[in-house]
Task: structure prediction
Amino acid sequence: MQDLGPLVTLLSREDLTTVAEKFPDILLQLALDVEGTAVSEDFLTAVFHALKRTIGTITPSNLPPGCGGTRTPSSEHILKLADANSHWSAGELRCLSPETFIRSVELLGALTSFSMAQLLALKDKAKEVWGPVRSWRKHQVRALGHIALSMNQSEIRELELGSTDTVAALIRHRQWSPPQVRSLLEGFLHDSGLPVDALAGWDLAGLGRLLCAMTGPELDSVSTAAYSVAAARVGELACEAQVLRRLLRKAREVFGDLGQWHSFVLWEVGTVAAGMSGEELKLLDPDLMPYFTPAAMAILPTHVFKELSPEQLKKLGPENSAAVTAAQEAALNREQLAGLQAARDGGDSNETPLSTAPLTGSAYRGEMCFLLWAAFTAVYFADYCQILAHNICT
Result:
């Protein structure tokens, strides 16, 4: 059985049940080995039942009221179950002992498969163990992981969010609702004491998706200096179209009018280029089309995308043409579809290979610094060798 390794995860439900009965320890070890990888729900169920057979009913003496007789896992059991921890019921999670919660909160917060009822139970446990939300420390907030998704807007406002590190740790999770994202942004601005126009480039980079929750006037007040530093990071965001249009204004302030943009600018602004109107898009030189990022191409509104000429579509290149959505493709006429197919076939494309793609401003500066350091080191080493040879010979 051990020789099968990860192949065990592909067994049928019936076979996994048999393995759980005969080789529970092997199954539990395998759960740790494949943690974080995509496995079937049948495998996770088998792992959970294998552990239940080995632990029976555990009822620590310091359980909350109403938890008598509830099967309660220890931190060791949670560690063994790995991704199968999603099978604990909300009631069982609510009855975790304080010690088990403190030891296991980061592992539980890393799971993405909990239901909202389970996340709410873990949030309630956090309040019980750590006290009111307003008293939580930064490291505790970061440890919550996906558990934080269960917080309502008023609870989010009580968090200590003055650090971009804390905000960046929270915003990594994709399931935040727009009102929650707005509350996170307001919390950061309030707790940091920084108005939007005082945000530096590293602040914009750390805020990430929170920028998508800014209002039009707030986006307009972002300094051009800060945006120029963080342009490449901002260009990774998939914001709503109206936000991208506002960010495109900021990009124009930094890089000039669209007619002046070179390939490296289009690459650096990334998804912000998706804020162009159909008229602006039609004016772009077809040779610039390969320098759209695939992420920007995928979020171009359909009514804008259909304004691309057959020649522009032909120049997209295989990577960008592969990013075209079904809705975008459905809006094209026969001639445009032929241009898109030519791009997918690799014909008439000047697309730059990934290894030679244009450097963003920050990447360019980093490479130049490295080259200067290397040159300085070579000169210094050569001088040192010359002195050493002179001393040896004399």
Q: What stands out?
A: Confidence is low (pLDDT under 50) at residues 351-370, 387-394. The CA atoms of residues 75 and 104 lie 6 Å apart. The radius of gyration is 27 Å.
